Amino acid sequence: MEENKKEVYWYNNPNFITTLAISIAVLIIVLSQSFAVKNNIGTNDILRSLLNHNSIYILGLIYFIPLKTLSGKKHFNHLNIFLILIYIVFSVTGILTILQSFGLTSLVGLAINIVLLVYLIHTLLIDTKIWKDFKLEKSPLNEIKGENYYYTLVILSIILLTVNLIQTSTMAGTIISILGCIYTCILSRYIYLYRVHIDLNKDKKKSRKKESSKEQAVK
Prior knowledge:
Layout: H1 14-38, H2 43-53, H3 55-64, H4 70-74, H5 76-100, H6 104-124, H7 129-133, H8 146-167, H9 171-218
Helix pairs in contact: 1-3, 1-9, 3-5, 5-6, 6-8, 6-9, 8-9
């Protein structure tokens, strides 16, 4: 018997995307710290750099690594809320940064954080009590398709990368900027795949209801 199996490309494989997000985050943290050591930066400055510039990747690891465990999968919704809180903080921080020093980099960075935050809320909270309690199903932003969010984030990430590449004058800055762009795109792809998963489940439930209603009508 021949089995018809659909080939799943790496960018449509949630498990691979999660692993890739972890790998990129670790790579960014290790490289940025190694670059700092090579530049003879003091220990305090290295720790400050780790917390300030790499905090988003450290927190990303705290989210993604547990997803590889049974305990993390069991508390999936709690991890999602944690991720949303992270981007609420980063969005607020981005607004404060613009007020202090307005620039194209900070503006695009804020746009990415806000779009990510909206995308996270309208995707990861769908199967939670928060979604029902706050009646988020009535949000007009639900009308925006997941792929539109995804491509918007990819475009914004590329714009931010372009600006950073123009402004940076070091190889270290170039490498970190490219990896940062990749990480944002991978995170966006992860959210996109989960949204596809939710939509497929909704379609299956609708088809089951139609089939059951037809069977009852026949009886």
